[in-house]
């Protein structure tokens, strides 16, 4: 049922979004470094690596530059058009093709690079190893401001391991425990809703969703307030 839903919904989304995808592809082709797509190795179902597809938003040699696999909101590797694509999450839409190919699901644990996946403990992989990684999911929604959260970090990998990994692992294990069509539909609806209403209280909508530890909650609240102030200034 889940696989059939993924194929049908992704195919419809590609058709509906094609008027948006095609202009973005043309704009990328004639701007920045001329690259339209970015492919990167991620860890998929059963620990099998696959090539994730995104719109190109960063310099081609970004993985070998300072910052590595962790990107922040102030990252100098991000191309001018890339910031808009990342802020709106449009850069993630090519992953609909990963879903059609069976490498990903619409909803699931977020696929990680080999270096980042090594930060997660064995019990995390025991819970999610048999699941296809997702285009969105509980971890993706709650950490939608991850780049801003690490924007002022002096050691991104260390701060990611300290702040992000423990809570994101809890969220992904929550999904593994509660996965099902209704959960997927709820997470798809929330994914779309937070684009329109970033201040939406996700915990009020999802039963038993783990809450962040106190130190992380403080940092997340700071980022949310900063982004809210920025939106008010633009309005």
Protein described:
With 235 residues, this protein is mainly alpha-helical. It contains 10 helices and 4 strands. It has helices spanning 2-29, 80-87, 95-101, 114-117, 122-128, 138-142, 146-149, 156-178, 181-196, 214-234; strands at residues 37-43, 49-55, 105-107, 134-136. A two-stranded antiparallel sheet has the order 1-2. Strands 3-4 form a two-stranded parallel sheet. A hairpin with a 5-residue loop joins strand 1 (37-43) and strand 2 (49-55). Helix 1 (2-29) packs antiparallel against helix 3. The longest helix is centred in the first third of the chain and has 28 residues, at 2-29. It starts with a helix and ends with a helix.
Furnish the topology, listing elements before pairings.
Layout: H1 2-29, E1 37-43, E2 49-55, H2 80-87, H3 95-101, E3 105-107, H4 114-117, H5 122-128, E4 134-136, H6 138-142, H7 146-149, H8 156-178, H9 181-196, H10 214-234
Parallel strand pairs: 3-4
Antiparallel strand pairs: 1-2
Helix pairs in contact: 1-3
């Amino acid at each position: 049922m889940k696989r059939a839903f993924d194929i049908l919904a992704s195919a419809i989304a590609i058709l509906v979004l094609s008027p948006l995808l095609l202009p973005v592809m043309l704009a990328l082709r004639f701007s920045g470094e001329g690259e339209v797509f970015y492919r990167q190795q991620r860890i998929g179902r059963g620990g099998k690596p696959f090539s994730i597809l995104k719109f190109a938003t960063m310099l081609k040699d970004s993985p070998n530059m300072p910052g590595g696999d962790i990107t922040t909101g102030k990252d100098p590797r991000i191309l001018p058009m890339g910031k808009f694509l990342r802020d709106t999450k449009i850069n993630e839409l090519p992953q609909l093709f990963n879903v059609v190919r069976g490498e990903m699901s619409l909803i699931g644990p977020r696929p990680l690079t080999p270096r980042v996946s090594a930060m997660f403990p064995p019990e995390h992989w025991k819970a999610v190893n048999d699941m296809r990684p997702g285009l969105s999911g509980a971890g993706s929604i709650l950490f939608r401001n991850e780049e801003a959260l690490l924007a002022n970090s002096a050691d991104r990998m260390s701060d990611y391991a300290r702040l992000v990994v423990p809570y994101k692992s809890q969220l992904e294990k929550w999904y593994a425990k509660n996965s099902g069509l209704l959960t997927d539909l709820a997470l798809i609806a929330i994914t779309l809703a937070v684009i329109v209403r970033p201040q939406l209280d996700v915990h009020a909508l999802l039963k038993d969703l783990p809450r962040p530890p106190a130190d992380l909650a403080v940092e997340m609240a700071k980022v949310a307030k900063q982004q809210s102030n920025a939106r008010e200034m633009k309005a």
